[in-house]
TrEMBL record:
PANTHER family: WINGS APART-LIKE PROTEIN HOMOLOG. Residues 52-61, 97-108, 166-176 have a biased composition (Low complexity). It comes from the Eukaryota. InterPro entries: ARM-like (IPR011989), WAPL (IPR039874), WAPL_C (IPR022771). Residues 23-207 are annotated as: Disordered. Residues 213-548 form the Wings apart-like protein C-terminal domain. Belongs to the WAPL family. This is Wings apart-like protein C-terminal domain-containing protein. Residues 128-151 have a biased composition (Basic and acidic residues).
Length: 637
């Protein structure tokens, strides 16, 4: 053991005695500038008197007690929380300072100073590094799992006060611990996965890019679509299915749906919704008049703006005609029906129903009629006319069979009364005309055919008496209906009455006169000319298929027609648009002369018919009837 270490182990009193009596003078070099505890005192001489020796002993004892008290006060831990264990670097620094001391005296003094310095330094670090107890445990736990440290850094909370000096000291102390690689791993940057190589397949990335939402606009749109889908689901769940009793929840849901369908955005959302067609399920079991009116309003609004084949199929599967047949019988205004006590409808419900009614009246659906009231009959007829035009012929036949009882009753009531100014009359004509276009004549009972043709004859007679009218669309629709229904003998026979034939003759003569005067005044109206052509076609069908109709016209009426036709030969070329109408008139005169063989045949009549045949041969070959007419007229000569 070195003298320095032996000196450290000796009691402090013995060290002081040696220093004062000069015992270790031979082992130390005299140096007047020694550092440490003895630097502030002068060197004590070897010749000391006994009295002085006793005084020195007394002072030495006092000094020993004071020094021990100072050292004990230094080594005594402060009244603070327990500090960390003494760091190895501090112990090594103290040992290095002791080894570098030149003499035992200086070593003693330096040791005292070193102990004081170490104690003060430990005390300082205990005061500064107090939060290190909280950090030590997580670090050691993290050291047990290095894979976790590779993915994340050590996190500090706001309860810990840190500084740059403290962090440097902690990093220096951690280098001498048993975990040399732990702090290195913590200080390393987070390892990120390597970038994909160009050889990887990009199909998965393309798929992710297609599915992922790339912008905030798409995110908003997706959220809006989800909200709208939930809104439609909520409405459909509230509407539910028809029941035996009227439901206020169902009525309110139908009112809300009919109101929202007025908006184009909601219309598109409802069109694209997967459960949209559920609204038509069980519709033939609907017995509530108000719910039925609202359902019809929803279908009218939707089908007037969109085409929905699946919805139409759902309606035909659920026999929509049976439900419409019940609504056709309801003629009272819907708001008046809702005001009845038996309707059991709240004030808010009646207000919502009135709003739906007002929205429907503002739509361009009513053929130019200005409506103030809207009944279940009117809305059901409007829906029926739309369905007849949209469905295929087979479904139209099923639909009309389901509504035949109520619709035929309504048609007969219009035929008896002059109801041409009512929108229900116009809708009835539209339904009949659409039926005549979409379906082929079926083998129906003769009584049914006669009843239908009798009503059509009444409609035609009423229209011809006031022709031309301002409502050209309804007049033209009725004339088309008459042409479509008079192309066979059974149906044409219903129009062979003398009154109707006389009305046709009067309309023909007045129509040609109106068209000629309009041409001369440069005010040609195509509507009147088109309707004149339809009237000529009706008369040709009746005279062609019914021989008795040829004799029902009087001779003076034939003379009027001949005079009208003779004017055309002098002023109008047969190739012009009006010339085709004069060719139709020539064909009518040909059939009339077959019924009145005693009358002289005009000289240019047969060549005019033959010329029309030659023109039609270039278009189609349907000229057999006209060729037979020419042959019959030639024999009359």
């Amino acid at each position: 053991m070195s003298p320095t270490r032996r000196a450290l182990k000796l009691p402090l009193s013995q060290k002081l005695t040696w220093t004062l009596h000069g015992i270790d003078a031979k082992d130390s070099k005299s140096n007047s500038s020694e550092k440490g505890f003895t630097d502030s005192h002068e060197t004590v001489s070897e010749a000391v008197t006994p009295k002085a020796s006793a005084a020195i002993s007394t002072s030495t004892a006092k000094l020993e007690k004071g020094t021990e008290a100072k050292i004990s006060s230094i080594s005594k831990p402060p009244d603070t929380p327990p500090t960390r264990r003494r760091r190895l670097i501090d112990a090594l620094a103290a040992e290095k300072s002791i080894q570098s001391s030149p003499s035992p005296s200086s070593s003693q003094n330096h040791n005292i100073g070193g102990l004081d310095h170490v104690s003060n330094k430990e005390h300082k670090h205990a005061r500064v590094e107090r939060p290190s107890f909280r950090k030590e445990a997580p670090l050691r736990r993290a050291g047990s799992d290095s894979s976790v440290l590779e993915r994340r850094r050590v996190k500090f909370t706001y309860s810990q006060s840190r500084s740059f000096i403290q962090a440097s000291q902690e990093s220096s102390a951690a280098e001498s611990t048993d975990y040399p690689s732990l702090m290195d791993e913590i200080d390393e940057p987070i390892k990120r996965p390597p970038s994909p190589t160009p050889d990887e397949d990009d199909d998965d990335d393309d798929l992710k890019n297609k599915v992922a939402i790339r912008s905030v606009h798409e995110l908003r749109r997706a959220g809006a679509n989800n909200r709208s889908s939930d809104e439609v689901d909520d409405l459909l769940s509230r509407i539910g299915a028809p029941g035996s009793l009227a439901s206020s929840m169902r009525r309110n849901g139908l009112c809300e749906l009919a109101s929202k369908l007025q908006k184009k955005e909601f219309m598109n959302q409802f069109r694209d919704h997967a459960s949209r067609d559920n609204i038509a399920k069980g519709i033939r079991h609907e017995k509530d008049t108000i719910s039925g009116f609202l359902l019809a309003a929803i279908f009218v609004i939707f089908l007037s703006a969109e085409t929905a084949p699946h919805l139409l199929h759902q309606l035909t599967e659920n026999r929509v005609g049976l439900w419409l047949s019940n609504l056709i019988m309801m003629q009272e205004d819907v708001t008046a029906i809702a005001a009845h006590k038996s309707a059991n409808m709240s004030r808010a419900g009646r207000s919502a129903l009135a709003g739906v009614k007002s929205a429907l009246l503002e739509m361009d659906l009513w053929q130019g009629y200005k409506l103030q009231q809207l009944s279940p009959r009117t809305i059901s007829l409007q829906l029926l006319s739309m369905l007849v035009r949209l469905l295929d012929p087979h479904d139209v036949r099923v639909l009309l069979d389901d509504t035949f009882a109520s619709f035929s009753q309504l048609r007969s009531s219009f035929a008896k009364d002059d109801s041409r100014d009512e929108v229900d009359y116009a809708l009835t004509i539209l339904i009949m005309e659409a039926e005549s276009n979409s379906t082929t004549p079926a083998e129906e009972p003769l009584m049914k055919i006669r009843q239908e043709m009798s009503d059509i004859a009444a409609f035609l007679q009423s229209t011809l008496q006031c022709w031309p009218r301002t409502r050209h669309n309804i007049d033209a629709t009725l004339l088309k209906l008459a042409i479509n229904t008079t192309n066979n003998e059974t149906r044409a026979a219903a129009l062979q009455t003398s009154q109707l034939m006389s009305s046709l003759v009067c309309c023909i003569t007045s129509g040609f006169s109106s068209v000629q005067s309009a041409i001369q005044n440069s005010a040609f109206e195509s509507n009147i000319y088109d309707e004149l052509s339809l009237i000529l076609g009706i008369m040709i069908n009746v005279l062609e298929h019914c021989s008795d109709a040829r004799t029902s016209i009087h001779a003076d009426e034939i003379d009027k027609l001949v005079a009208t036709w003779s004017e055309s030969e002098r002023s109008i070329e047969t190739t012009s648009k009006l010339g085709i109408a004069y060719s139709y008139l020539a064909i009518i005169l040909g059939y009339l002369y077959l019924g009145h063989t005693a009358l002289p045949l005009p000289s240019g009549l047969v060549p005019a018919i033959q010329h029309f045949i030659n023109i039609n041969k270039t278009v189609n070959n349907k000229t057999a009837e006209l060729e037979h007419l020419v042959y019959s007229l030639t024999r009359l000569r």
